[in-house]
Design brief:
Blueprint: H1 6-39, H2 46-78, H3 80-98, H4 104-107, H5 110-140, H6 146-172, H7 176-181, H8 186-189, H9 191-203, H10 209-216, H11 224-231, H12 233-242, H13 247-263, H14 268-296, H15 298-322, H16 325-352, H17 360-376, H18 378-386, H19 393-412
Length: 445
C-alpha cells in the first residue's frame, strides 16, 4: 500500500535530480556542437573538426551500457537510493573537471584524450540515473497513476535541457575569442553548485516499499543480471530497440543545432532558443500525455509519438535548410515539445512495468542504455550522411524516421501492463485484462 505523500516526494526527488544530472550531460552536447570542434580538434577542415567533436558526444553513450550493468546490479542488490546518490556525485565531478581542461593549443593531443575520459565518466553516471529514478518513482506510485509519477523523471530531464541551453544563450552571444578561451567553461563550472543541491535532496530519500519487502524476505537476486537474462531477455531486447527513439532527441539537440549553425548559416542564438522553448512546452506536455497513458494504455500514446516524429523530422530539417526561422520555431516546438513528449511521458512506466522488482533497475538500465548508446552516435552518423552538402538533410531525415519505425515495431510486440498491479509486474502469468483498476475517487474503471 502506498503511503500518503511518498509518491510525490519520490517524484519530486526524481525530477530535481534528473534536471541537475541532465543539465550536466547536455551542456556537453551544446558545447560539442558550438565550440569543441575548434578548441579540442583543430583542423584545416572545419567539417572534420565538427565530426570529431560530435563523436566525443557519442562516446558518453558508449560508457552507458557498461555503467548500466554495474549500477543495475547495485540498485537491484543494495537499493535504488545508493545508485541515485552515486550518480549525481559522479556526474557533477566529471562535468566540473571538463571546464578545467586545457585546450589542444595548450597541451596537444592530451586535451581531447582527457575530454573523452571525462565524457566516459559522464556516461557511467547517466547509465543509472533514469533507471534508478524511474524505479524509485514507479515503486512508490499508486497503481492507477504509475505513468504520471514516473513521467516526472523525464520532465526533469527536459528541465535539465532547458537549463543547459539557457546557460549557453549568454555564453554563445560572447565575442568568439572570449567564447573559445574561457566563456565556454562557465556552464561546466556551474555544476559544482547544482550537484550539492541534488546530493542533499537525494540523501533524504527513503527506499521503496517494494525493495524493503525484498530485503525483509531475503528475495533479492544475488546476481540480478543473470536472472534478468535468463528469464527476461526478450523484454531487455524489446527495450533496446524501443529506446532508439532517443535518436530524435540527439538529432534535434546536437546534429540539427550543428547543421543550422555550421552548414545552413543560421545564427546561434535563435537556434538555442528553439531548444529552450521546445523544452518549456515539453514540461507541460509530458504530464498530460502521461495522464492519458494511465487511462488508455502506454502503447497507443507511445506509438503515436514515434510516428509523429518520423514525419516531422522532414519538416524540421527542411525548415533549417530553407533558412525560415518562423518554420524552424513552429515545427521544432511541435516535434520536440509536443509530439516527442508523448514517447518520453510513457517509456519510464512502459519499460519498468515489463520487469519484476528484483531485476527492474537492471532491466531498465541495460535495455535503455544500449538503445541510448545507438542513439548517442546518431549525430555523428547524421553528419557523415550529410557530409559537406546542405542538400543531404533529406538523407538524415530518412535515417531518423527509420529509427522511429524501429521503435514502433518494438513497442507493438510488447504487452501493455498498465492494468497489472505493481506487485504482479513482470510475472509471466499476469494480464491486464483480469485486474480491475480503481480511479482516484474509488470507482472501478
Amino acid at each position: 500500500m502506498v503511503e500518503h505523500g511518498k509518491p510525490r516526494k519520490a517524484a519530486v526527488a526524481a525530477w530535481v535530480g534528473s534536471a541537475l544530472e541532465y543539465y550536466d550531460f547536455f551542456i556537453y552536447g551544446t558545447a560539442a556542437a558550438l565550440v569543441f570542434g575548434k578548441i579540442f580538434f583543430p583542423s584545416s577542415d572545419p567539417a572534420a573538426g565538427t565530426l570529431l567533436a560530435l563523436a566525443t558526444f557519442g562516446v558518453g553513450y558508449v560508457a552507458r551500457p557498461i555503467g548500466a550493468f554495474i549500477l543495475g546490479h547495485v540498485g537491484d542488490r543494495f537499493g535504488r537510493k545508493k545508485v541515485l546518490v552515486f550518480t549525481v556525485l559522479l556526474m557533477g565531478l566529471s562535468t566540473f573537471l571538463v571546464g578545467c581542461l586545457p585546450t589542444y593549443g595548450q597541451v596537444g593531443v592530451l586535451a581531447p584524450v582527457l575530454l573523452v575520459v571525462l565524457r566516459l565518466l559522464q556516461g557511467l553516471s547517466a547509465a543509472g540515473e533514469q533507471a534508478g529514478a524511474n524505479s524509485m518513482s514507479l515503486e512508490h506510485a499508486p497503481e492507477h497513476r504509475r505513468s504520471y509519477y514516473t513521467s516526472w523523471t523525464l520532465s526533469g530531464t527536459q528541465a535539465g535541457q532547458i537549463l543547459a541551453t539557457a546557460v549557453f544563450l549568454p555564453v554563445a552571444a560572447m565575442p568568439t575569442a572570449a567564447l573559445q578561451s574561457w566563456g565556454w567553461r562557465l556552464p561546466f563550472w556551474a555544476s559544482a553548485l547544482v550537484v550539492v543541491a541534488a546530493f542533499v535532496i537525494r540523501r533524504k530519500l527513503e527506499e521503496t516499499p517494494v525493495f524493503e519487502r525484498e530485503v525483509a524476505g531475503k528475495e533479492q537476486a544475488k546476481l540480478p543480471v543473470a536472472v534478468l537474462f535468463r528469464d527476461h531477455w526478450a523484454d531487455v531486447l524489446r527495450v533496446v530497440f524501443a529506446a532508439v527513439i532517443a535518436a530524435v532527441s540527439t538529432i534535434f539537440t546536437v546534429y540539427a543545432l550543428s547543421y543550422a549553425v555550421n552548414s545552413a548559416g543560421l545564427a546561434r542564438t535563435p537556434m538555442l532558443w528553439v531548444g529552450v522553448l521546445a523544452n518549456v512546452v515539453a514540461l507541460a506536455a509530458i504530464p498530460l500525455w502521461a495522464m492519458l497513458a494511465d487511462r488508455v494504455g502506454r502503447k497507443p500514446v507511445f506509438i503515436g509519438g514515434s510516428l509523429g516524429c518520423a514525419v516531422l523530422i522532414f519538416a524540421y530539417l527542411g525548415a533549417i535548410s530553407a533558412g525560415n526561422y518562423v518554420l524552424v520555431f513552429v515545427v521544432g516546438i511541435l516535434m520536440f515539445g509536443v509530439v516527442y513528449s508523448a514517447t518520453n511521458a510513457v517509456w519510464p512506466a512502459f519499460y519498468g512495468e515489463m520487469f519484476p522488482a528484483r531485476v527492474r533497475l537492471s532491466g531498465m538500465a541495460i535495455g535503455t542504455q544500449i538503445g541510448f548508446a545507438i542513439a548517442g552516435f546518431t549525430p555523428t552518423i547524421a553528419a557523415a550522411i550529410a557530409g559537406d552538402k546542405s542538400a543531404n538533410w533529406v538523407g538524415v531525415a530518412i535515417f531518423t524516421a527509420g529509427l522511429c519505425l524501429v521503435n514502433v515495431i518494438a513497442v507493438l510486440t510488447g504487452r501493455d501492463n498498465f492494468r497489472v498491479p505493481t506487485a504482479d509486474l513482470g510475472r509471466k502469468d499476469s494480464t491486464g485484462d483480469r485486474v480491475p483498476m480503481t480511479s482516484p475517487g474509488g470507482a472501478t474503471a
